[in-house]
Amino acid sequence: MRAIQIPRLDGPDAAELVEIDEPRPGDPHPENDVLIDVHAAGVAFPDALQTRGLYQHKPELPYIPGAEIAGIVRSAPPGAHVAAGDRVAALTMLSGAMAEVVALPADRVFKLPDAVSFEAGAGLLFNDLTVHCALRTRGRLVAGESVLVHGAAGGIGTSTLRLASAWGAARTIAVVSTEDKADVARAAGATDVVLADGFKDAVKELTGGRGVDIVVDPVGGDRFTDSLRSLAPGGRLLVIGFTGGEIPTVKVNRLLLNNVDAVGVGWGAWAATHPGYLAEQWAELEPMLASGAVSAPEPVVYPLERAGEAIASLEDRSAKGKVVVTVR
Ligand SMILES: NC(=O)c1ccc[n+]([C@@H]2O[C@H](COP(=O)([O-])OP(=O)(O)OC[C@H]3O[C@@H](n4cnc5c(N)ncnc54)[C@H](OP(=O)(O)O)[C@@H]3O)[C@@H](O)[C@H]2O)c1
């Protein structure tokens, strides 16, 4: 089969298209008994970090990048919730996606609604389930609240903008670095867009000095303190990631003085410690996608042989919206 491999930790340019053997059901673990013909694979920020050995999960070299796919089940064991011929999205978590065939455990495979294309389906699970964990499980979003999201034109950002209003947010404020990215955030559903430079004052003005109820923060870095200052009383800052590079520190007197929370969101770790969580999340999300209540992602699509470029677009910050590679 055709696959992308990362043979050395030189960054996304190291990605090469190779011919390797297809996996069989049960490779490399017996529970990987659902075989899927992959049509598209999602690209996420950890894929870029992994190519330099900078992510906490470090697959053995050479490895196949990518955490999520969409495709068609080729075979599944009797009694599984999916069967040969089903259109599915699935999590390879956190490598293995960019290949024509994957073998996965059934609990990481989800039936894709007919209305969702393979490209959109491949760009769905990683971000939408993280954002579900952030807003619903950890952030306790209540109807009528306001949500600010950093990196709003990125994968986590556009996912937050697509989902927050469906879960009751009355207002979504997108923070972006350029006017181009402002257009992406608006298309994803932002009610307001502000530039990263000076976002705190812009948010104060937009909210009449009150601030927002929730900040979704996949960026971290030097925005963190201003994000805390942008929270209304009772507000929650959801710590999702650090694309800005630096892991910020928090003076906890700020939490006390303003009655705000800094809340960690580690979706993978939450799923690993809460059996059945992924299925519960999908049971909530799938009908919303099937009915059109929530729009599917509209990813930027690269062919498989340009996977290195696709991954690099997240590293060099040029990506707009979710990025996906087509595999067949
Ligand atoms: N906690 C969890 O469970 C979980 C799950 C999934 C992902 N994540 C994390 O969430 C973060 C976002 O992932 P993603 O896939 O949404 O990434 P993405 O699509 O690349 O979006 C990230 C955004 O970060 C902003 N950014 C600010 N400084 C940047 C820099 N120096 N380099 C690159 N981007 C920068 C960019 O927006 P502007 O240019 O507009 O500032 C960019 O659009 C990553 O850190 C990832 O590891 C966490």
Task: Provide a brief overview of the structure.
This protein folds into two domains: 2-124 and 296-326, Medium-chain alcohol dehydrogenases, catalytic domain (Quinone Oxidoreductase, Chain A, domain 1, Alpha-Beta Complex), CATH 3.90.180.10; 127-268, Rossmann fold (3-Layer(aba) Sandwich). It contains eleven helices and 15 strands. The chain has helices at residues 45-50, 118-122, 125-138, 155-163, 179-188, 199-206, 224-229, 253-258, 267-273, 277-291, 307-315; strands spanning 2-5, 16-19, 34-43, 68-75, 87-91, 101-104, 109-111, 146-149, 171-176, 192-195, 212-217, 231-239, 261-264, 300-303, 323-326.
Q: Can you describe this structure?
A:
The protein has eleven helices and 15 strands. The chain folds into two domains: 2-124 and 296-326, Quinone Oxidoreductase, Chain A, domain 1, CATH 3.90.180.10; 127-268, NAD(P)-binding Rossmann-like Domain (Rossmann fold, 3-Layer(aba) Sandwich), CATH 3.40.50. Strand 14 (300-303), helix 11 and strand 15 form a beta-alpha-beta unit. It has helices spanning 45-50, 118-122, 125-138, 155-163, 179-188, 199-206, 224-229, 253-258, 267-273, 277-291, 307-315; strands at 2-5, 16-19, 34-43, 68-75, 87-91, 101-104, 109-111, 146-149, 171-176, 192-195, 212-217, 231-239, 261-264, 300-303, 323-326. It is globular and about 60 Å long. Helix 3 packs across helix 4 and helix 3 (125-138) crosses helix 10 (277-291). NADP nicotinamide-adenine-dinucleotide phosphate binds next to helix 1, helix 3, helix 4 and helix 9.
